[in-house]
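Structure tokens please, single chain.
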Amino acid sequence: MLTAELENQILAVLFVAREPLMLSQLQEIYPKTSAEDLKGALGRLSSNFSSLQEAMEIREVGGGYRMTTRPEHHEIIRSYLKTKPSSKLSLAALETLSVIAYKQPVTMPEIMEIRGVRGSSTIRTLLEKRLIEIRGRKKAVGRPIMYGTSKDFLLHFGLKDLSDLPTLGELEEVLAQPGSLSE
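Here you go.
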């Protein structure tokens, strides 16, 4: 198949996809095309698409590829759609979400030990927002529930996978800078 034709077809699929398009889904559509060729086509498509215009981009998020608007246009799009920013997370929810993201799978007692406060309502909020999910039960006394981040967490924060999170060292550097949240 011609490269330009393949890229145009993938672009059409990305346009109509409701969820991030996984490489495995493309392999189902193009069984005679190697995974390397499909990845190459996605890379070229992303680069060409970005160079042609400055409103949208193709990003790798949540383990797949998605056509998205660029962040600098979010406010005008929100204005057009007449929507309000999604409800913000409280500091307690952000702290809990951070502990879960970096320590997953993690139990409520482990979260409480790290944060120093009880947070069952925070866990409930994060579950309702589908930013975290239950990952089973720990093989320990009382068999506490283990929590981990969800695919929606990756999508919400625009992450390809958990390796896109800053390292704890990078976070410490940011917090050590003048004007950071730690002051």
